[in-house]
Automatic annotation (TrEMBL):
Ranges where the Cas1p 10 TM acyl transferase domain occurs: 253-734
Matching InterPro entries: Cas1_AcylTrans_dom, NXPE4_C
Gene Ontology molecular function: N-acetylneuraminate 9-O-acetyltransferase activity
Biological process (GO), any one: carbohydrate metabolic process
GO cellular component: Golgi membrane
Pfam families documented for this protein: Cas1_AcylT, NXPE4_C
Chain segments annotated as transmembrane: 269-291, 325-343, 355-375, 396-417, 452-468, 474-494, 506-526, 561-579, 600-617, 659-679, 685-709, 730-750
Name by which UniProt lists this protein: N-acetylneuraminate (7)9-O-acetyltransferase
Signal sequence annotation: none
First-level EC class: transferase
Keyword terms, alphabetized: Acyltransferase, Glycoprotein, Golgi apparatus, Membrane, Transferase, Transmembrane, Transmembrane helix
Top-level taxon of the source organism: Eukaryota
Gene name in the database record: Casd1
Family of the protein in this entry: Belongs to the PC-esterase family. CASD1 subfamily.
Amino acid sequence: FKGGDTCEYLLSSGRFLGEKVWQPHSCMMHKYKNSEAKNCLLDRHVAFIGDSRIRQLFYSFIKLLNPQVKEEGNKHGNILFEDKSASIRVDFLWYPEVNGSMRQRIKSWTEDSVAKPHIIVAGAATWSIKIHNGSNEALTQYKINITSIAPLLEKLAKSSDVYWVLQDPVYEELLSESRKMITNEKIDAYNEAAVRILNSSSRNSKAKVKVFSVSKLIAQETIMKSADGLHLPESSRDTNAMILMNVYCNKIMKPIDGSCCQPQPPLTLIQKLAFCFFTLAIIGYFIISLIHRNNYRKSKSCADLESGEERKPAVSSPNVSTLEMLLHSFCKLGLIMTYFYLCDRANLFMKENKFYTHSSFFIPIVYILVLGVFYTENTKETKVLNREQTDEWKGWMQLVILIYHISGASTFLPVYMHIRVLVAAYLFQTGYGHFSYFWLKGDFGVYRVCQVLFRLNFLVVVLCIVMDRPYQFYYFVPLVTVWFMIIYATLAVWPQIVQKKANGNCLWHFGLLLKLLCLLTCIYFLSYSQGVFEKIFSFWPLSKCFELNGNVYEWWFRWKLDRYVVFHGMLFAFIYLALQKRQMISEGKGEPLFSSRVSNILLFISVVSLLTYSIWASSCKNKTECNELHPSVSLVQILAFVLIRNIPGYIRSVYSSFFAWFGKISLELFICQYHIWLAADTKGILVLIPGYPMFNVLVSTFIFVCVAHEISQITNDLAQIVVPKDSSTLLKRLLCIAGFFSGLLLFSAVQDQSRH
């Protein structure tokens, strides 16, 4: 389904999510703050012309600029508002009827010598119905008057934004006796006349009066809450004012979560080059496939007439095979990236705002937990945090995080705090996994480092190029990348202490603890030295990677939020492996880790700590206070879960293959959701099938999971080619990669200069 003209949809159609949240058809509406509204309307003149309903809209509009404004003054007169700091002028002009007076005022704006308002919002009809007691003659005169005004409005529309507000329905039961003649039937007749006459003479599609008909839909849902049956309740007026702000400001301010009325961004130089590269890869792959197929036919095995045996065709050379795999991977990746671009950069598919309800979050959570328990299998090994178990852990956490994002649950603070623990648990696994590998294997070679960095960053680098987003935008990948390098530097720097060396002399254990203590000191110092931290990451070219919106504050915030948990993961791995080496824990199948008494005490403490945290998270006042305490308390919940999951032998011996499958592609799921499951860079929801929310989620989720799985396979295939084990070949590849990034930085600089 094509997105179509989102401005037209914003002004004419939509529905309520809940009681107060308005959802335009096919696009997302941004909620403008005072500062944003002022920046948009800087040096602008806005004119509202009409009756008391337009006056209400005027007040709601200026409250977006200044919430302190009170609705006072002459109700049946002109009202002027001015914000001198931003040179904004907003006028309300009292013209309750479409007559000669209104025509004269509008005509005065069409004269060349007069400064025209940048935005004109007009509308009137109920006074004409009331004064003339709903007579047909009044309707006829209304048609004549609006016919005379229409060409003037269309002339103004060539240089200004002109909106004609259709009349809202009334709630006839609440109308006073003096307004009983204002019926919905009469209002519909006046609206029909206005729509038919406006723009009927306009031949230029760009210069036309925009009909503001969405107010009718909003009023149909809320007019029964009106105080007098005629005027809208305040929440509905505010919604109309916000729609007006979106129609005018989205193309100027370009908010990420305001897709309505935003033009498709032009392709950048880097995006064009990426498009050419993927096109060449697709063409190259098909050419090589055709050549191989042709060669295969020529060398097809044929029966030997003398021996009756079959001759095997000649095996293709390894180089050709590698090239074909490379082109095949880039061919698939190119098609997938095209889908990414169409979903979240082109105005092809629809997007909608998120709306949180408890049921939209908790029902899917229960559903996936039941599925996860259903797919239970025995583990291959029964060690603490074995591979199947860590994959399972990543899998269910990732699914919960995905549901959290699509349901908009970040607005509910207790859920937000629990999700923060899940993100911390991912980083805990980073510390635990990489420390365990280096400690046990002692492999500090370049190959290992390059493999990890490639697998972590490949997809994000491609998305930065294709989707024109900074590296820091995908914040989790920079976070785990930097922490991996910190872990590597801590353990690889002289003296390199590994388990094999430490077994010979216990003093090496103290040496390693000293290294970890130095790491903790550095983390503590940086966490309280924002200036030093920002200076480190503000140096070029690091600044190109870690800046977001012109500064590194977002990176500082993300790093600080979970600053200790990776260290705790490393320390946990060290203690666990030391206990394992000395056979102080039992890891046999079905055996508890410790004695029955110790196991029961630890399980009781773990359950109590989890419940205590949930109670504390529910009593949190605001995100700032909770985030301050999060680095200190998140470890307790992670350790509690690890103990509950591993102390009982029968629990440690099984795992959920359902969750483990998702855990293997958890990184791809986390990154891909930004653009092909959610929309507008996670701010909204992608709509492939409008009008059927549940069916849409099922279809988009199926595609999303398949794409994430395919990208995981592509990354693994390319990792074997781009990062070979042979040292000399690897060095050449690294030089090529360095050249690639140098070129990328150069093109990025040219691109930034052209933007400025």
